[in-house]
Design goal:
Keywords: Membrane, Transmembrane, Transmembrane helix. With about 325 residues, this protein is mainly alpha-helical. It has a single domain (about 1-320), classed as Up-down Bundle (A middle domain of Talin 1), CATH 1.20.1420.30. It is built from 13 helices and four strands. It has helices at about 1-30, 35-50, 50-60, 65-90, 100-120, 125-150, 155-165, 170-200, 205-220, 220-230, 235-260, 265-290, 295-320; strands spanning about 95, 125, 265, 295. Strands 1-4 form a two-stranded antiparallel sheet. α1 packs antiparallel against α2 (about 35-50), α2 (about 35-50) runs antiparallel to α6 and α4 packs antiparallel against α11 (about 235-260). The longest helix has about 35 residues, at about 170-200. The protein is globular, with a radius of gyration of 19 Å. The chain starts with a helix and ends with a helix.
Length: about 325
Amino acid sequence: MALPLLMIVIGLIILVWSADLFVDGAAIISRYLGIPPLLIGMVVIGFGTSAPELAVSAISAWQGNPGLALGNAYGSNITNIALILGSAALIKPIVVHSQVLKKELPLLFLVTVFVLLLIVDGELTRLDAVAFLLVFAGLMFWMIRQGLKQNTDTLGLEVTEELDEHPISSGQAWFWLGSGLVLLVLSSRLLVWGAVTIAQSLGVSDLVIGLTIVAVGTSLPELASSLIAAGKGEDDLALGNIIGSNFFNTLAVVGLAGVIHPMNIPHEIVYRDWPLMAVLTASLFLFGRGANGRINRLEGGALVAVYSAYTLYLINSVVGG
């Protein structure tokens, strides 16, 4: 038991660090290639913060552990809204702008419903997975077009300004990119091996391990960036980071896992985890439409309380079962 637990801890540490290394390398290379700051922020950084979920779910599917792959993706979505955004709102209330209410949040909810329509039959076929990836590609195209019209992106500008102040050679950037990618894969395999071994030794489903330990671990980049953004009062970054990550997890992470290995959908995901994910997504829309148009500390506390209750329920189901 000690060795698998140690592998999980080591895997998570290397996973988060390698994802950061990979993102930094990709952002710097993008800058050298003349890619606009907006695209660096939306695409490179957006993909990078979800790289841990993508790597872990892909490895899990490849090794025939669908519960871990799905639990990681949907558990990360629940963690992002309930734990991370709730905690960020406790630090400082988060303003929800009208554009987010009109476009991104309703779209995220529609995507959540779309996913249910394809998994409610208890199967994720390769065709379903391809549909996920096609919808994700369409959404990315639409978001990039919308962003180019505004021509602003705070995160992308921060990256380019940092590079201007502290120049890094393209050779070093390529080394970071390659090293980060290799370490992502290796650390994901360590993490998956540790999680599956513990699940088997305790008689716990890999779905529960994916929804809890692995989901929180792979969401650490979102946790760090959202809490920092909230502390600085950068509400767009805090909320946008979570919404973007949930789009990515719901469509790209699950889609890639399904293409690698079609899988059966555990009953619990359809009747327990998906409804909570949908309710949490809808709650952001309702909170934002309140009198102050923001997620206040009381609402943030409620989100964290929901996450705590959900986690305790999962633990109790394991102990009681």
